[in-house]
Structures are given as C-alpha cells and as structure tokens.
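Side project, low priority. Logging it here so it doesn't get lost.
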Amino acid sequence: MPHLTSTKKLTSGTELHTGLGVPGFAHPLVAPAEWAELTRPGTPVHWVVLNVADGPGSRPDPHCLEAAGRLRNAGVRVLGHIDATYGARGFGEMISDAHRYIDWYKADGFLLDRCPTERAALPEIRRTVTTLRAIRDDAHVVLGHGTHPHPGYAESADQLVTFSGPWSDYRWSQVAEWTADHPPERFCHLVHGVPGGHLDEALRIARWQGASTIYFTDRTDRGGRTDPWEAMPGYWDEIVSRIGTGVSE
C-alpha cells in the first residue's frame, strides 16, 4: 500500500503513546459539550488549540478563558492559534498574538498554522520559534504545515503537522523518508471525512507512518465551505476508547 513507505522503530519499548491533537472546536458558547468532553478523565488528549477570533482576539474572552482554565487544570496543554499565512505574515504580528495568548489565556504553547514548507522560509520560522520559547518557558510549539516540509523544520519545533486534509487523500498518502530519523511523537496527522467504518484503517496508517498525535473526524469541509474541526466527530467515544486502550495492528 502507498503509505507503507517507511519502517520506524518504536520508542519506549513496543508502545506508541497515541493521543489526540485537537485543532480547535467552535467557540465554547457554540460548542459547550465539545469543550467539556475534553476534560473528561482518561481522555487521551495531547493538546488543544484555542482560536478565539482568527487568533487571540482584541480583548480577553471570558468564555474562552474559562474553557482554557478547565483544560489546563485537567493537565491538557492549551496551544494558541497563530496564523503564519505561509510565511506572508509579519514576525511582529505573530509575536504580538503570542503575547496576548500568554497574558490572557496562560497558553502552554502555540500552533503556527499555515506554516511555510520551503527551505527559504526556514530562517524566519526559526527566529519566530526561538522568540516564542523566550517569551514562554517550556512552550510546546507545533508547526502546522499540513504536508511534509523541508526536513530542517524538524530541528525547530516540538511537533510538525505533516498531514492535514481529507480521508480521500490520507488513505493513499506517503510518508517522507526523512521522518524515519525522528520518533513518532514529533509528528501529527489531522484528517477529516474519515468514515466510521475506516477508523481502524486510519489508525493503522498513522501508526505505520509514525505519527503519534492524531485527530480524525467524520465531519467534512463540504468543498471548503465549512470548518470540519468545529464539531466533535460522531464516533468520539469510539476513538477515545480505541486510543486509550492502544492502537491495534
């Protein structure tokens, strides 16, 4: 199968500690059940992205502050959403967003969404990540490329999103050979439109390709007209149960 293009040695013995990286639900007033579900004991969540208003917004949002506080009290990392606009966004704007996420929501780190992938943009992204770590100790930084970037990006971030897109592409996707030089906890896969009947297959692909942070949903983007991440997948309980008990081969 096309996704069987690399073999990886598992870290920490024989188990991959697979968990969920939640790209961000709708506003807590619109999706209160979704946000509450993330703090249920035993839910295998690695991190949750907080996107208030295409960023941190212009002023603190009390509902988002409450949701973020509950997550952090439950031991879940909260990442502020920063749009890198494929390298077009200014350094100062992104750092300003980061400061607001820290000051208002006590963010544990950041997702640089729409992160560029080419080698030429590497120095500016390195500069941004270095500054983020300077203003927030132990910041967890995820670069949201959505595809395999130049391998140099792996030197800067804690994690790279090397796939973000529909199931129709994911099921035939290929992993870049250079990822075999890094452990699975360095990579994230975010996939929408995954039918419930293919959930096991999707989990196997993530395991074979060496990504231990995943998010699968049966929601779709309806041709780019909707955000597939805004609502919880219909099989939420099932995926939580399967990840919590280990991903089967």
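Brief comment: The CA atoms of residues 37 and 193 lie 21 Å apart.
Revisit when time allows.
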